[in-house]
Amino acid sequence: MNVRQQQSLFFLTLPDLQKLCAVRVTLCDGVADAETRSTQMKMCRQLLFLHQDVLASPVPGIFSQIWVVMAIPFYKAGKLNAYIEKYGAKVEAPQRVIPVILQNCLSYSLVARLAPAWNKTGHLLVQGREFLSQMGKQNAVVFDINVTETQVCLSIEAYTIRLPPPELEEFDISQSVIKDFDTHKNAVIEGHSILSNWCYVLPSMKMGQILSILHTTPPDCPFHSYRDFQKHWDDLYGYKLPEDCGNIQIYCSIYFRMIGGRVFTYPLHTSLHRCSAHV
């Protein structure tokens, strides 16, 4: 459920773009797309928190490249190159900052630096580091940044939403199957038992199809424990996944038709939300 409130517009004067430069960073070749994407996002976030006076963002549509915007004296100091070399990446020659590059870097940098106080959830930013475990109403905003040669326009709309953690019953799984799954730690709920198997997956809210539900991660999953997932989500998105408190975890294998038929693993109670008319 989304309840929309008032929209606000803010206009900011840009600094002199002639005093800034943009560089394109290219990651090393020979790495799988999924790993390259993770490295791209980790590098962006690390740059932003290591150097407060830079802006960064993935190059749209290219997993192996990053834009970094900074003051020209910062670039000449060589601090960026020293960091990039650790990843075996290459830095292209600096170029003039144009509005579209600055807009992408401002948007990504703002979202990255706001987490986990505000967390990206599709087109929303949801308030609170514990937002994944909240049952009631939560505050959220939608913001949009538009950059011209002379100014920045920031649009903010406030919402009240509900984003409760999903339960197995929501996916139209029979009680007998759920009971067996809860009783046996090696049990697996196969796809034919999941009658409502489409869901939205955080943080992008892309639609995926649940193939199976397990108590342990599949053998081909790069993460072998819940703590691995916690670190991954923190590194890439700033999400603070809830502590497991000794509970048995539940994982889902999710198929994504729109990204090459790839299958990924997600913790159920922290990153899955069933498709419905009110999401």
Automatic annotation (TrEMBL):
This is DUF4708 domain-containing protein. It comes from the Eukaryota. The lineage of its organism: Eukaryota, Metazoa, Chordata, Craniata, Vertebrata. Residues 7-269 form the DUF4708 domain. InterPro entries: DUF4708 (IPR031643).
